[in-house]
Specification:
Blueprint: H1 2-13, H2 16-20, E1 28-33, E2 41-44, E3 50-53, E4 57-60, H3 66-79, E5 88-94, E6 99-104, E7 110-113, H4 121-127, E8 135-143, E9 146-151, E10 166-171, E11 174-179, E12 185-188, H5 195-201, E13 209-219, E14 225-229, E15 241-246
Parallel strand pairs: 6-10, 11-15
Antiparallel strand pairs: 1-2, 1-5, 3-4, 6-7, 8-9, 8-10, 11-12, 13-14, 13-15
Length: about 250
Amino acid sequence: MRLLFALAAIVLALPAWAQSEKLGVGDAIRVTVFQQPDLTTEARISEKGTVLVPLIGEQKVAGKSAADAGKQIAEALKTGKYLKDPQVSVAMVTLRSRQVSVLGQVTRPGRYALDDTSSQLVDVLAAAGGVLPTGADMATVMRDGKKEVVDVKNRDAAFKLRNGDTVYIDRAPVFYIYGEVARSGAYRVEPNMTVMQAIAAGGGITPRGSDRRLKIRRAGPDGKVVETDAKLTDAVKTDDVIYVKEALF
């Protein structure tokens, strides 16, 4: 009787989604046979969708709920005449078949498993190594053919991911800075950013450079790139190319 209560407690302790979730390849399950401790086993579902159960051998459980898998194993034990009226409980230990894809501007793009402690978007992004400095603050989540945009930095909105979701972190708006600066390259365009702030992001002007010899190359409405003189107080726009020239001695 105590074991029955314990098994019930295990089921009740599972998250709501886990009680109805279908088993899949890679999931780890615990098979418990009431009053038969030698038959209790813990195994991971193989690529064939099976687990090895004492006495009855391989049982195909992938695609079934935990409850249905338990009924199947009980029936096999009964049919094989190993037990008269076996009571079998199947509990999920870890779920690896519930996965999402993380793509775009993250450190380690790929597929990541979900479980009840790491199904939030921020957790999965952390598992992927975090968003790169060139990544946008917004994530696009594709679910059942529909697109949803989620604010990555807003950790109060603990967005829950589901099996099969695809998360894409787009490239953030950037500008480029070259010439006589400490660190040439691409940098994020911050709100209300000025040329002075852009130069600071690039590590500042070298001793050879001049803040009076600045150029900006920017695409016009017709798509043609136009180069103009720049001032430190000018606003920086997406895809601007800022060039710091040498000082005139």
